[in-house]
Design brief:
By secondary structure, the chain is α/β, with parallel strands linked by helices. Helices cover 50% and strands 13% of the residues. Strand 1 and strand 2 form a beta hairpin.
Length: 311
């Protein structure tokens, strides 16, 4: 079996027509490190190459599917074990180069989209949380099975983020996508199924059996049939402009992290810790913007410089 840092992949021991791709950072609720997107793509490529495999189940080890990008690494920038040479937290450069940022985040987007482009159907099995960047991974899968009480959403739309895969509108329609993007709210698995975002939502005790039943039903279909139907359906979204939408979303994601509000969020995370920044973001408390955000950034940068001078 292939060996990755952040995921595992193997054929199901009982049903070799099913491959299981498991996000494997349970100590961090499977938060996305800088190496996880590449690991996901390579795991998908491995499963694609296995002739016996007809369907891929994507799941998370432990209590959650994926809690989004690892803010210890991306917001605080203090996790050197996971920071690669081209990582945006490796070294802040002034002025910010939006195209360098775009190239990195577009690569992450394309790596998540390997789940969507793969000729074999992919099923996300969601327990706990599929939030922020974790929702990108889940929504790049063809089908979605959730626990009733699991949460899905993209809270960073409030500040410091724009979902680069842009899947929300394609999966939900404009009106409900706007509601979630404007508020940063999450919804439960039950509500996701009611809205048509999830194929089904089931009690936690039934998540494995429901996902396995769906995967086994699909696994009995010839691979060529599955591939043709997936290509036809995906082509509808491509004709609607999915690739162009993802280009804009990825550019805008970079802007959200470098405009005054985004810089405030990162400095707040660096000085006070990411929990402080997230608590403020998600509380409903007004987020600093414009001149207020710029002033706070200066104050926080002074505190950060003073703290570094003591080290």
């Amino acid at each position: 079996m292939p060996d990755f840092h952040t995921v595992t992949v193997a054929q199901d021991a009982r049903q070799p027509r099913i491959a299981r791709l498991r996000l494997n950072r349970p100590e961090k609720l499977n938060a996305i490190s800088s190496t996880m997107p590449r690991d996901i793509r390579q795991a998908v490529e491995w499963a694609e190459a296995q002739d016996a495999v007809h369907v891929i189940v994507v799941e998370g080890e432990g209590r959650a599917f994926c809690a989004g990008y690892d803010l210890n690494e991306y917001a605080e920038g203090i996790d050197p074990a996971n920071i690669t040479a081209d990582h945006p937290c490796r070294q802040e450069k002034t002025p910010w180069d939006p195209m360098v940022d775009y190239a990195l985040m577009k690569r992450h987007t394309e790596e998540f989209m390997s789940l969507w482009r793969c000729s074999k159907p992919t099923i996300a099995k969601v327990q706990g949380y599929a939030v922020a960047g974790g929702s990108d991974i889940a929504l790049c899968c063809d089908l979605l099975v959730m626990e009733d009480d699991a949460k899905i959403g993209y809270m960073p739309t409030r500040v410091w983020g724009c979902p680069t895969t842009a899947m929300w509108t394609y999966r939900l329609g404009a009106m409900r996508a706007k509601q979630l993007m404007f508020t940063g709210d999450t919804i439960t698995g039950s509500q996701a199924a009611e809205w048509g975002l999830a194929n089904m939502a089931v009690p936690a005790a039934e998540l494995d059996s429901a996902t396995n039943a769906l995967a086994e039903r699909i696994a009995g279909v010839p691979k060529s049939q599955l591939m043709m139907h997936k290509l036809v359906i995906n082509q509808v979204w491509l004709a609607m402009g999915l690739e162009q939408t993802q280009m804009f979303a990825t550019v805008f994601d970079g802007i959200t992290r470098h405009n005054p509000e985004g810089m405030w969020f990162r400095r707040q995370a660096q000085v006070e810790g990411f929990k402080s920044a997230i608590d403020w973001r998600d509380s409903g408390r007004p987020i600093p913007e414009g001149d207020e955000a710029r002033a706070l950034v200066k104050q926080l940068e002074q505190q950060l410089a003073a703290a570094r001078a003591k080290v």
